[in-house]
Structure formats: C-alpha cells, structure tokens
Amino acid sequence: MPKPSASPAPRAAGAEPVERGRWPDNPVLARVWRGAHVESQHRGAWVLVDRSGAVRAGAGDSRQPVFARSSVKSLQALPLIESGAAARFAFSDAEIALALASHGGEPCHVEVVAALLERLGLSQADLQCGPQPPADPAARSALEGAGLEPSPIHNKCSGKHAGFLALALHLGADPEHYLDPEAPPQRLVREAVLAMALARPGEVTLAVDGCSAPTFRLPLERLATALARVADPADLPPERRAACERMATAVARHPELIAGNKRLCTVLARVTGGRIFPKVGGE
User: Fold this and answer.
1) For residue 252, is pLDDT > 90?
2) Range with the lowest mean pLDDT among 15-24, 54-63, 128-137, 199-208?
3) Most Cβ neighbours (<10 Å): which of 11, 61, 106, 162?
4) Average pLDDT, the chain
5) Going by C-beta distance under 8 Å and a sequence separation of 6 or more, which residues neighbour residue 167?
6) Please, which residues have CB within 8 angstroms of residue 176's CB and are 6 or more apart in sequence?
7) CA distances from 83 to 127, 187, 206, 242 (A)
8) What does DSSP assign to residue 100?
9) pLDDT for position 14
10) How confident is the model at residue 261 (pLDDT cuts 50, 70, 90)?
11) How far apart are CA 173 and CA 157, in angstroms?
C-alpha cells in the first residue's frame, strides 16, 4: 500500500490532534486479497502470556493500552458468582454462559434472558443496554417478518446486563443505577478486573461501552494476563478459582450461548469441548 504523505491531514474544528508517534508501528497481521492482489492490510499486536503474566510470545507493542470491550465479560461476571448472587438466584449454567456472552439474539438467547429477568422480578424495561436488532440474520428476519421492533432483550449484551441486575439486587443496590461506575456492582467489577490483570489502578481507565456499561482500557499484556488466569485459574484463591471453573463449565456445556450457532466463539468452544475459552470484543 502507498506510504501516506508526511503532511498532516486536515481535521474537524475542535477535534483532538493525534500525537505523532503515539501509535506504534505494529506488524501487519492480516491481509485481505481480492483475486491476485492485496486490497488492504491491517496492523496490530498480539501477545501470549502465562497465568503469572510472563510474556511467552508476541509481536507488536503489547504494552499499548487497548479497550477490552466485550472480551472481558468473564471478568465482569466474577462478582456475580463470588458474591453469592448467582447461587441466591439459582443461576443455571445456561444463564451463566449468557452473562459472558455477546449473543446473536436467537430464540435460545432471548428466552433464557427473559426467564431470568422474570425470576428476578424484573423486565426488559430494567435493562439499560438499549434495543438492538438481533445480530443473527435468521433471528433478525424472523423479528421483522413478525412486524416486531427489536428490544433490549435482543441486545447482544442483555445477558451481561441481567447478571449486573442480579448482582445489584443481591447487594441491596438500586437496580436503576446498576451501571454507575461508583455503584457497588461496578466497583466490584472494577476490583475484579484490576486483580485478575495484576494491574495497578493507574494502568486501567474507564469509558462507556456500546451497551452503556463501563468498559476498560488497559495494556494488552494486562488484558492477556487476566484472560490467562480465567482459563488457567490454578493459582487463584479458592473462591475465585471456583468462579472461573464455573464459567468455563457453563461455556463448555452451552457453547451456542456464548455467541451463536454460526459464530466463531461458539464453534471454537464446541469443537474443543470447552478446552478453549473464546471471547471476542468490539473492534
């Protein structure tokens, strides 16, 4: 691809300038081919760490902070299990799997979330993730064919939000404010992310995710450390290890719920019998 001009690109009035040298010159990780020619190429970084946080392999600048987005749903669900909320409200493995999911809005997803909300004494109106058309094409077509509008329960993050609501109820917090970063549910989530990533508070910053929940920006190595410890929790305290094992079991038993029947995360969990704990994130 041609090298960009050295002249700075014009920017909209009031836009923040991008600092020169702020982004590392990461290697090309993927190329898109059209016929016999490369149409586009994409740079990035990747890193493999063990559960201690030691880097085993990688390429690019893995110390650069990134937004974790939905890839950390397993970390966000730890307080749901560790606090006793999941036990109190008798969460099934299917409901645990959906608390970790970016689902496709298929019937197998929305029916489980709807039943959970009813058991909690809540409804779709309590979900603050916003309405979203089902990501699954068949589910989206079926909804349109029935003349129905998408609702919050179709949002790919509705399972996570139902888990947050259960945690709020268990803690005696106001469910209306369950996404407030300073409310008890989200404080526990933030503490879990920091601890699992072996991160210092200054290494993790917050923003708002597409579903209105707090999202985390942290160095890629720290993110990899947290996920390595979820997948291999042998050195964690007993309560946290048990929570990670419960999540892994839920995904292994219900791979279709972590994403959808034609999605990569589901396929990886299914074909490996749960030996791989996959989870994509936005961007």
Assistant:
1) yes
2) 15-24
3) 162
4) 92
5) 79, 80, 83, 85, 173, 178, 185, 188
6) none
7) 21, 13, 23, 12
8) T
9) 45
10) confident
11) 21
Q: Which DSSP string do the residues of 210-223 spell out, in sequence order?
A: TTSSEEEEEEHHHH
Distance CA 251, CA 249 (A): 5
* 7, two tokens: 């002249």
Alpha helices in the chain (DSSP H): 73-76, 78-82, 85-88, 93-99, 107-119, 137-145, 158-171, 184-197, 220-231, 238-253, 255-258, 264-271
Quote the tokens at residue 16: 């923040």
Q: What angle do CA 38, 44, 48 make, to 5 degrees?
A: 125
CB 216 within 8 A of CB 72: yes
Q: 130: which residues sit within 8 A by CB, 6+ positions away? A: 152, 155, 211, 212
Structure token digits, residue 116: 């959970």
Residue-level pLDDT at 22: 67
Quote the distance between the C-alpha of residue 164 and its chain's center. 13
Predicted confidence band of residue 21 (pLDDT cuts 50, 70, 90): low
pLDDT at 114: 98
Mean pLDDT of 43-59: 96
Q: Is the pTM of this model over 0.85?
A: yes
In total, the chain counts a number of residues equal to 283
Nearest to 67 by CA among 197, 202, 217: 217
Q: How far apart are CA 124 and CA 159, in angstroms?
A: 11
